[in-house]
Amino acid sequence: MSTESKPLQPSQVGVIGAGVMGEALIAALIKFGMKASSICVSEKRAERAEELVKSYGICVCDLAQNVATSDVLLLVVKPQDMASVLEEIKGSIKAGALIITFAAGKSTSFITSILGTGHPVIRVMPNTPALVGAGMSAMSRGAGVSDAQAAFASAFLSATGKAVEVEESLQDAVTATSGSGPAYFFAFAEHMIEGAMALGLSKEVATTLTAQTMLGAAILLDQSGKSATTLRENVTSPNGTTAAALASLTESDFAGIVARAMKAARDRSQELA
After folding, report:
1. Class of the CATH domain delimited by 13-170
2. Which ranges in 126-253 belong to alpha helices (H)?
3. Which of 121, 148, 177, 205 is a Cys-bridge partner for 108, taking CB atoms 3.0 to 4.6 Å apart?
4. Contact residues for 24 (Cβ-Cβ < 8 A; gap 6+)
5. Is 17 left (phi over 0), alpha (psi -120 to 50) or beta?
């Protein structure tokens, strides 16, 4: 993507699907600089739509109107619902509108096979820390996406945390790494908390110790400029407590467990295509 390209400036962005990630994207659009009145959401649950109107001041409109008037459409629907949604909107989309899809496993070619080639498509894999402005998004351009359109996507996604651009062939690997990654982290945290409680700590103290330790370690990895390997070695004294814990993980094939889990996520992403 050209660093000199000015981002697209859409007059209206339509959000299709207002679940947890849809709300995070609405917040990101506003943080990026979009007027709330220029964001229109289509959501089947009336009470959910009203909740978002009260929280963000956005507009709500029916699906046909939304797709007909929006310069950019964010498709935040489940992978299994994508085909039916595309079939419903394909005849009503504003000419030349940019489509940004957030459904795991659904390629840009899948989208254009239903909508036709008249609409440029960007595929994005976000993750749930976007809800607190600490998300990780990876985007891939489909055919016909301009530098200005890609710059808009990158800029507003950066309001959720960080954004990178990758070849679409790597999106399944991204899904296994950052898309599903928060769940691996939460599962490890669960077990750390349980382990701390088994050693006599209260749940409250165990949770605080675990959360802050993981937060600090993540910030250190992000900001120190040192590799994860170096940071691990720095805290591991020979024959010390950390060495004993890491030896136990190694004996349980910790590296293999992680690698197989990530491969399973990658394989499932491919199956969803």
Report:
1. alpha beta
2. 147-158, 171-174, 181-198, 203-223, 228-234, 241-251
3. 121
4. 126, 128, 130, 131, 135, 160
5. left
CATH of span 181-271: 1.10.3730.10
Domain ranges for the chain, please list them.
Answer: 13-170, 181-271
Span 124-152, pLDDT tens digits:
999 999 989 999 999 999 999 999 999 99
Please report the DSSP string for 95-148 in residue order: TT-EEEE--TT--HHHHHHHH-TTS-EEEEE--GGGGGT-EEEEEEE-TT--HH
Largest CA distance in the chain: 67
Question: Which residue from 191, 189, 190, 193 is spatially nearest to 201, judged by alpha carbons?
Answer: 193
SS3 30: helix
Cβ-contact 41, 52 below 8 angstroms: yes
**What residues are paired with 141 via a beta bridge?**
122
pLDDT digits (tens, 9 = 90+) for 185-233: 999 999 999 999 999 999 999 999 999 999 999 999 999 999 999 999 9
Report the amino acid identity of residue 95: A
Neighbours of 150 (CB within 10 A): 22
Q: What span, in angstroms and rounded, lies between the C-alpha atoms of 186 and 179?
A: 13
The Cα–Cα gap between 118 and 93 comes to 10
> Do the Cβ atoms of 198 and 187 come closer than 8 Å?
no
Nearest to 173 by CA among 183, 181, 161: 181
The closest alpha carbon to 99, from 72, 125, 118, belongs to 72
30: its two tokens: 């506003």
Which among 75, 82, 18 has a CA at the least distance from the CA of 273? 82
